[in-house]
Task: structure prediction
Amino acid sequence: MTRQPVFTSTVRVLYGDTDAGGVVYNANYLRYFEIGRTELMRAWVCSYKEIEGLGLVLPVTECYSRYKAPAFYDDLLVVETTIAEVSTLKCRFNYRILRQEEERAKLLVKGYTVHAAVTREGRLARIPEEIHQKIARYLASSGSSTVSDE
Result:
């Protein structure tokens, strides 16, 4: 199986990201996922601003997080993001969040988000062909077969 290209972002844990126990509050990992996704899209497909310029938004319709170990204030985290699949209506991103430790990186969280293309009025829409094709080319270059016409 060919591994998909991974886009890497870094994020520093802010004090405000932590809870009373001194660890990153669980919902903040969704923000870190968003950082990874936004930067991957900007670098490899197009910016979200361009998508919004087409009258569309890509809200999260499904998300999953599996917490393996905590992150703490001032940790420098690595967010690994891949595009896992795309159809004409939605796409899925996979994530891994790691912290570099002395010997190797420690996996803290893994998960995914699914996004549907929606008009500003809230109606389901097709992902514009040009954007769909860029994502499909990305998936094809990785040997993935997760492009569909759903």
Remarks:
- The CA atoms of residues 38 and 100 lie 22 Å apart.
